[in-house]
């Protein structure tokens, strides 16, 4: 029976879990008397679900900032997962493809914003800072000349 297939069970229980911790209404978890999980905690659980809810997994394990990050495989997915929601084609600062990202690299704003440095707005706005590993990968990619690779 299809429902017994472990990956399907995983998908169903994972989406129920996310639904319950994100729901701010009557069905939300934990129950009303208790504080909601923080956004950072919710994001961490979502990342764990997306990666298959494995036991003993380090959600950052596949992030290695000592390797040279590549644009298509590493950098664009970080922007896609953390920035595009607010930085689509109607935003003032557009981050939707290589050229629009390169513009923010060349004017210094990309690195400035994700490292929460002085002189630019801290990003992602009102959300937890990117992991130090992802910041390291973006920094290394910029250092190597931000190639479209
Ligand atoms: C919740 C919405 C939101 C998210 C998510 C978000 N931003 Fe922004 N960002 C804004 C707003 C609003 C501004 C100010 C208007 C503009 O420049 O588009 C801004 C401005 C910027 C700027 C210009 C900064 C300046 O000082 O001029 C950069 C660069 C930037 N964001 C990069 C990013 C990156 C990189 C990410 C992902 C890691 C990200 N943003 C995620 C909302 C967001």
Can you describe what's shown?
The chain is built from 6 helices and no strands. The chain is an all-alpha fold and 149 residues long. Helix 1 runs antiparallel to helix 2 (39-50) and helix 3 (71-82) packs across helix 6. The protein is globular. The protein starts with 5 loop residues before the first helix and ends in a 6-residue tail after the last helix. The site of heme C (HEC) has 22 residues, from helix 5.
Assembly state (oligomeric): single chain
Radius of gyration: 18 Å
N to C succession of SSEs: HHHHHH
End-to-end Cα distance: 44 Å
The poorly predicted ranges are none
Number of structurally distinct domains = 2
Hetero groups in this structure are: heme C
DSSP, total strands: 0
- Class of secondary structure makeup: mainly alpha
Helical amount: 40-55%
User: How much beta, percentage-wise?
Assistant: under 5%
Morphology call: globular
> How many strands, which pairing sense, and closed or not: the largest β-sheet?
none
Key words describing this protein structure:
single chain; 149 residues; mainly alpha; 2 domains; 0% strand; globular; binds heme C
How would the blueprint of this fold be written?
Blueprint: H1 6-22, H2 39-50, H3 71-82, H4 98-106, H5 109-114, H6 132-143
Bound molecules: heme C (HEC).
Heme C (HEC) is lined by residues 82-83, 85-87, 91-93, 95, 104, 109-110, 113-114, 120-121, 123-127, 130.
